[in-house]
Amino acid sequence: MLGKVVIVGTGLIGGSFALALKRAGAVREVVGMERAPDAAARALALGIADSITASPQAAMNGADLVLLAAPVAQTARILETLLPYLEPGTVLTDAGSTKADVAATARAVLGERARQFVPGHPIAGRETNGPDAALADLYQGKKTVITPLPENAPGDVGLVAAAWRLCGAIIHTLTPEQHDGVFAAVSHLPHLLAYALVDDIARKPHADLLFQYAASGFRDFTRIAGSSPEMWRDISLANRDALLTELDAYLAQLTALRARLAAHDGPALEAIYTNAQRARRAWSEAIETAEPPVPASASTKQESP
Amino acid sequence: MLGKVVIVGTGLIGGSFALALKRAGAVREVVGMERAPDAAARALALGIADSITASPQAAMNGADLVLLAAPVAQTARILETLLPYLEPGTVLTDAGSTKADVAATARAVLGERARQFVPGHPIAGRETNGPDAALADLYQGKKTVITPLPENAPGDVGLVAAAWRLCGAIIHTLTPEQHDGVFAAVSHLPHLLAYALVDDIARKPHADLLFQYAASGFRDFTRIAGSSPEMWRDISLANRDALLTELDAYLAQLTALRARLAAHDGPALEAIYTNAQRARRAWSEAIETAEPPVPASASTKQESP
């Protein structure tokens, strides 16, 4: 049972965290910090927060856990605002899509108090945002990756893990660098590739003709190119090094595949396609066992990056 | 009203064509040519064909329309078998995913009788194959691209278009070369990119770790990598030149994007992502107006390549 939880940003991510803890009867009081007046009013109306405050002093007074759920680019500013009122017993965490940069920011702003900051990343989301998109079961059965810093106290790491477990999440632990390498490969690179393909087609003189014949394979392949350009610009830059590593490996793979295609090497093409089909089937079967497919009403849903 | 229609290959594509014509009351007799005994028996049992014959002479006798719906690699062999019995009033067509190679094959095998061959490509399909997958409404509201040869008689082109219209399809007309360029861009290249990504990840030493964190964005992006490796090997080779052109344009695009990422050029990344998001939204809205989204039960469906 948590006493006071502070949510910085009461939108989809922070709001769902608060609603889940409340539904579990696991929190006494949720205080929201939210700069958008409309979002603040909706967070109160929806029962996400018991109160909203603009005062970091009031928010941090006696807080057990603080979740940063605002855009990652605001992390430094928010931590600077909270630091003067950070009590020794308070644990800070976040929900950002990249972790090495957040860890570096926490150390730069908080100094030795960074030991109170346990970085995290819930792998769940929706296409819509804001308090009205928040769901008490958003994290149910989904992964939350925690990337503890060496200086974190085990008890503080345990508190963050316990809070996410109360939201229904399955806890995975990686280092910030492992996290960023993994998500560069399976999330950030696919986004970049999808954006690049649609932009490439859209700039061709006969783009209208091409789009006319794009069908369901194209729709699924490029769905992630419908994501927020600002957010993905920030993620691309925040995870630049890991993303460049993955992009270079992929460019080498494509260049090799091009040579085989140019050489009319059917067996080599078939071997690559077959290996991909086999690996994807094995993945798909494993993931559907662990996380049953979403119902149709959520078929346009999008995980958190 | 068609008299006698011959379906060479009584699986998903040919079977759905026959069922649609029958439901429309638009055909007197459907004769199937099918080499797989199980498929032949199912095609009869399901009412796809009124009879099955192994004799090209019996099949071609008095035929108005012959649809080649076997794997594209068999096109030459099938045309060689049919040619001796091809009557002057019979029109041939096909349903292959590439068209310039089919046109070349038709001319090579049929010579001047290629004027009786009108190449076509219905843009519809399912993940399952065979007679049991055939649906009378598979082509309803979907596009069929017809790529007439200069030597085709207008009446023969009109007959093929009319038959597809009776199946509920919307007729589009392109040259074989236009067709292949368009599908290289919006279908064949995305398949190659998805296969390449999954193969690339699967070959990494920490592939198991990576796949563990792949989520719904990855699932949709790579869905087409679950397609038949043999079929896509054949399509890649059949449309090699157009596919290489598109692949080279994409490699240039990715290389430029890489340079911008390496240079930390946020505005350039955002401009590319924004253009892609805008173009995809416009496409998505246009396509959903023209072709409402498939219901959940068909959410794993796959268009014909």
Describe the structure.
The structure is a homodimer of 305-residue chains. With 305 residues, the first copy, chain A, is α/β, with parallel strands linked by helices. The first copy, chain A, has 2 domains: 173 residues, NAD(P)-binding Rossmann-like Domain (Rossmann fold), CATH 3.40.50; 121 residues, 6-phosphogluconate dehydrogenase C-terminal like domain (6-phosphogluconate dehydrogenase C-terminal fold, Orthogonal Bundle). Helices cover 51% and strands 12% of the residues of chain A. Chain A is built from 12 helices and 9 strands. In chain A, the strands form 2 sheets. In chain A, strands 3-2-1-4-5-6 form a 6-stranded parallel sheet. A 3-stranded mixed sheet of chain A has the order 7-8-9, with helices on one face. In chain A, helix 4 runs parallel beside helix 5. The radius of gyration of chain A is 21 Å and the shape is elongated.
